[in-house]
Amino acid sequence: MRIFGKVVRSSALILVGLAGSLGIAQPGFAQAAYGSYVGIGGGLGLSGRGDRSGGVVITGRYRLLEAPVSLRAQTIIGNGGAAIIPTVSYDIPLNWQTEAYVGAGVSIPTGNNSPVGDKVGLAIQPGVDYAIPGSNTVIFGNAVIAFDAYRNGGGTAVSVQGGVGFQLR
After folding, report:
1. d(CA 97, CA 159)
2. Which of 10, 114, 140, 168 is the most buried (most CB within 10 A)?
3. Nearest CA to 80 among 121, 105, 117, 26?
4. pTM
């Protein structure tokens, strides 16, 4: 009888433990099914002065796994110069393949005439990433808006980019 009592108590404790663990389970949240990538594409620079210039963009994204935040960097080459734009973005999944984001960072021109101006300044980067299902391919599109972008007279410069990336899994 003593053994039977111990088995019943042990079984009851196990059942209570299982029931308790079911009650405190964390809810699941949908996350986009892609992450970090590197890519290349084309861009069009538009200045507040009416200038337009085409160029090449090289981009990278490192997605932080525990938060909807990514570290991004772009190099935009064109108009006789280049600029590096590192940003931190807040990512908003729209569905399993598509994610919108807005980033903030700094525009760092490396020459006298880049697609986003000739002066270091604040940059905002809205954009969209789309992962092609069943592949490692990402299609990206974004804009870089650089404020107080010119040494002579300030002004805003905008560069719009798009291209193709390869996911790093």
Report:
1. 25
2. 114
3. 117
4. 0.76
Q: Which domain holds residue 68?
A: 37-167
52 and 158 in contact (C-beta within 8 Å)? no
CATH at residue 140: 2.40.160.20
pLDDT by 10s per residue, the chain, length 169? 454 444 444 444 444 443 444 444 444 444 454 689 999 999 998 866 666 788 999 999 999 988 999 999 999 998 788 999 999 999 999 999 999 999 999 999 997 788 898 899 999 999 999 999 999 999 999 999 999 988 888 889 999 999 999 998 7
Angle at 124 between CA 163 and CA 137, to 5 degrees: 20
Number of structural domains found in the chain = 1
Exposure letters 1-12 (e unless 16+ CB within 10 A, then b): eeeeeeeeeeee
Q: Nearest to residue 63, comparing CAs of 54, 72, 55?
A: 72
